[in-house]
Amino acid sequence: MQIIGHRGARGEAPENTLGGFQYLHNLGIRAVEFDVRLSKQQELVIIHDDHFLRTTGVDLSLVHASDDDIQQLNLAHTMPDWQHTEPLPRLAQVMQICHDFNHIEVEVKAVDTQDQADELVEFLETALVNDLHHVTITSFDVKILTALQQRQSMFDRGFLVEFPFGIHAIETAVNFGCDRIGWKDMLATQELIDLSHQARLKTSVWTVNDVDRAKVLRDFGIDGLITDFPKLMLEKL
User: Fold this and answer.
1) Which residues pair with 37 in a beta bridge?
2) pLDDT tens digits for 79-117?
3) How far is CA 131 from the centre of its chain?
4) How many Cβ atoms sit within 10 Å of the Cβ of residue 104?
5) Is the peptide bond before 203 cis (omega within 30 degrees of 0)?
6) Per-residue 3-state assignment (H helix, E strand, C coil) for the chain
7) What was the pLDDT predicted at 213?
C-alpha cells in the first residue's frame, strides 16, 4: 500500500502549496494527490476551491482573479505558524518539485460544459507530456473522463466516487477506460476493493487520517492511501 499525500500534506503543511509539496518530498514520500483548475489567464493552477476565501481569507473567486490579485495571496493563511508566504502554485512549479515522484494523482475539478472539459484536458496533456508514466488524471466529473476517452489519451485516468453507487461506479470507471478508482473512505469495503481489483482497477481511498482505519484498508489490499497526515502514517504503518 502506497501512502499518498492529500493536497500535498494538508494536515501538516498548507494545502496545495509549493511549501507543502516540498515538505512531502522531504519526508521521503514519492506519491501525491492535488487539484488543478484553469485560471482566468489560461494557466493550470493548483487549488481545490474555485474561491480563495477558505485558504487565503480573501473574498475572491479564481475566475475573476487578475495577476495582481493572485500575486498578493498567501495560501499559508490557515497555518499562521508556517514560516513562509505561499503563493498560488502553477502546475509546472509543482511538477518540478515532484520530478522524482512515482505516483501523482492530478484531480481535475468539475467544469460546466463539455467544451470546457475538452479545453482543460488539452492544456493538461500538453503540460504533462513529459510525465506520462507516473501521472494519473482523476476526476468526479464524467465530462473530464469523456474528454480523455475521446482524445484517446495515453494518460492513466481514475474515477473518483463519493456517493454509494456500489458496483455501478466500477462499471462507470471501466466504461471510461479508467485504470484506477478512488473511493471515499466511508464507501470502501472489502467487497468493493475486491470487485475493483477483479475489474483490473487500482484502488485509492481518501481521505484517511485515522491510523486504525488505515490498517484495516491496508488489510483490504488497497493500492493507495490518500491522507492529510503522511508523516503520521509513515510512523505508524
Assistant:
1) 45
2) 999 999 999 999 999 999 999 999 999 999 999 999 999
3) 15
4) 20
5) no
6) CEEEEECCCCCCCCCCCHHHHHHHHHHCCCEEEEEEEECCCCCEEECCCCECHHHHCCCCEHHHCCHHHHHCCCCCCCCCCCCCCCCCCEHHHHHHHCCCCCEEEEEECCCCCHHHHHHHHHHHHHHCHHHCCCEEEEECCHHHHHHHHHCCCCCEEEEEECCCCCHHHHHHHHHCCCCEEEEEHHHCCHHHHHHHHHCCCEEEEECCCCHHHHHHHHHHCCCEEEECCHHHHHHHC
7) 98
pTM: 0.97
Contact present, 108 and 81 (Cβ < 8 Å): no
Yes or no: say if 22 and 76 are a contact pair by the CB < 8 Å rule. no
Question: Of 180, 217, 183, 186, whose CA–CA distance to 202 is shortest?
Answer: 180
For cell 494536515, what's the residue?
11
Are 204 and 226 in contact by the 8 Å Cβ rule? The answer is yes
> CA-to-CA distance for 118 and 27, rounded, in angstroms?
36
Backbone angles phi, psi at 30, to 5 degrees: -125, 40
Average pLDDT, the chain: 97
31-38 vs 44-46, strand pairing mode: antiparallel
- What whole-number distance in Å separates Cα of residue 237 and Cα of residue 111? 37
- Determine the longest span between alpha carbons in the chain, in angstroms: 50
